[in-house]
Amino acid sequence: MAMAGAASPSCLFCQIARSSTSTSLLHTDEKVVAFEDINPSALRHYLVIPVEHISTVKDLQRTNEDHSLVSHMLTVGQTLLHRDAPQCKQYRFGFHQPPLNSVNHLHLHCLALPFTPRWKHVKYLSLGPLGGFIEADKLLEKIKPLSPISSQM
């Protein structure tokens, strides 16, 4: 499992996850919370974060727990955007990777496009080996647990 740590008193997202701020939550369950981005880059721009403190995508492992968490984050984000922006024809779901992440608490960007203003799309480009933005489905593939090697030969 990812190196989940105790809530960090200085981490804004830990405070939001524990309802210690005035941030209005769009979704909350035992694993994640979701809320609107304070500086939206699209028609609708939500963040889905784990309740437990996980710093970045680099802390995720090829485990069932981490894969399940990211998959759940994606499902929550997709459900919210389809509910709140059903007219949109394009959605993006992904994570910024260090050193380009602005908050050291894992967070899924859920975007109902178009980008507003249009230039904000540059914040959501993949930079290949340099990192940048990684689509949620690509991250899920990257942390997919390895299947047990068959001992039958």
From TrEMBL:
Record SUPFAM superfamilies: HIT-like
Protein's recorded name: HIT domain-containing protein
Lineage of producing organism: Eukaryota, Viridiplantae, Streptophyta, Embryophyta, Tracheophyta
Stored Gene3D superfamilies: HIT-like
HIT domain: residues covered: 12-124
Originating organism: Liquidambar formosana (Formosan gum)
Pfam families: DcpS_C (PF11969)
Leader peptide range in chain numbering: none
Record InterPro entries: Histidine_triad_HIT, HIT-like, HIT-like_sf
Catalytic machinery residues: 109
Domain of life: Eukaryota
Residue ranges of the motif Histidine triad motif: 105-109
Keywords annotated in UniProt: Hydrolase, Nucleotide-binding
One GO molecular-function entry: adenylylsulfatase activity
